[in-house]
Amino acid sequence: VAVGALQVSSATFGAPAASRLTLLGLPLAIDSPPLVEDWRHREILARLVADSAGAPATVSVVPNHAFFSVANFRYFGVRDGLALRFVRAWDQEPIGVEYMITKTGDVGPAFTAEKPRRIAERLASDPYLARVFPVIGEWRLPDGSTAAVRARRLPRDLDVAPDRLAVEIERAFVRRLPEFAADVRGLDVELEYGRDVLLGRIRRARVRMAEATVGELRRRGAARLRVHDLEIVLDDVLVNPLSAHAAGRLDPLDIGRVRLARARIDDADFQAFLGGLKGFRHATVRLEEGALRFSLRQPGPDVEARVRIVAAADRPFGLLSDGVRLGGVPVPGPLVDWVMRNFDPSVKIAARLPMPLEVGAVTVSPAAARIGPDGR
Which of 168, 193, 134 is nearest to 247 (CA)? Predict the structure, then answer.
């Protein structure tokens, strides 16, 4: 009881200090007394609520400092019942981000500091991004650094005709495609827009390719997939009109929905793609009528299953398995369903994407997998 009381007192209030409670040279507690410094969380949240008028909004907390991170703001947001959604630092583009919280100086441990520093450099060197995300509040923090809140503000004084800007955005779409598609044949980009294109709003962007090799082409060693009759539809797109007009560059700010409307993947291209994935080096996947035949050879019992791709309401697609065998022994259906619910990759895909992704109806035959109406 006495040792427990000391541990609780040391960890909670720092009295006695943890360094004085040691056993065989190891501390019996890790002290974390209440902070007396004000890291201005309440003031920053009040500014966000006032600017958003209490409406739902997505806030990117760029630093990962121990006392100034997304976890800190999520705690206060949940405690106070705010309609704000807090996410980590954005990746290549601030898609879906309506507010940013930044910090100078120490931005967290070395293994997470690269992204906040890259974002700070981008804001300092890209005048078009900085103008779309102006600073609406600054606060001095206890470690001597400065915190700032940036809000997305679309310019309303762009001096260009709507049709002219739409052409510039379409050309910017084409310029950015090499990041995701190579060896493209039959490219067609179609934009649907109104006068609010001057604010960077595109009602619908439809991208068609007769043939293309797609993947994360900027990443070394990324797997690539050859696709035919590809059609991608982006609804409610918001781009930075300043960079599109002045620099001919496509900088997406938000996408309401992405739909993979149509595609055909031939069996040979599918096998080549799987060969480039690390997780499939010991697996084989064959296209069958209506499903995929999956086999995994491993040091323990081998796994065999028949997998069907089905529509799902809360993620791009769902997976259903039947005929699952572990080392040749049939696995009961309820156990298979439980495993699929917990390891279905589409759940993680949906969680990582900053926008909803929909995939059209999928049909599989020995020759190819097809996406689209009636599988055509």
Answer: 168
Distances (CA, A) of 367 to 147, 157, 175, 225, 275: 57, 54, 33, 16, 18
Helix (H) or strand (E) segment spanning residue 127: helix 127-132
Q: State pLDDT tens for residues 229-288.
A: 999 999 999 999 999 999 999 999 999 999 999 999 999 999 999 888 887 877 889 999
Contacts of 188 (CB under 8 A, 6+ apart): 206, 207, 208, 209
Q: How far apart are CA 230 and CA 375, in angstroms?
A: 13
Q: What is the rounded distance in angstroms from the CA atom of residue 209 to the CA atom of residue 231?
A: 7
The DSSP call for residue 290 is T
Q: Which two tokens stand for residue 326?
A: 């572990």
CB neighbourhood size of 124 (10 A): 10
Task: Tell me the pTM.
Answer: 0.84
Q: Do 288 and 366 form a contact (C-beta atoms < 8 A)?
A: yes
C-alpha pair distances (Å), 29 with each of 34, 35, 94, 321: 15, 18, 41, 48
Burial 234-261, CB ≥16 within 10 A → b, else e:
bbebbbbbbbbbeeebbbbbbbeebbbb
Handedness of CA 267, 268, 270, 275 (dihedral sign): positive
Q: Whose structure tokens read 């081998």? A: 302
pLDDT digits (tens, 9 = 90+) for 158-193: 999 999 999 999 999 999 999 999 999 999 999 999
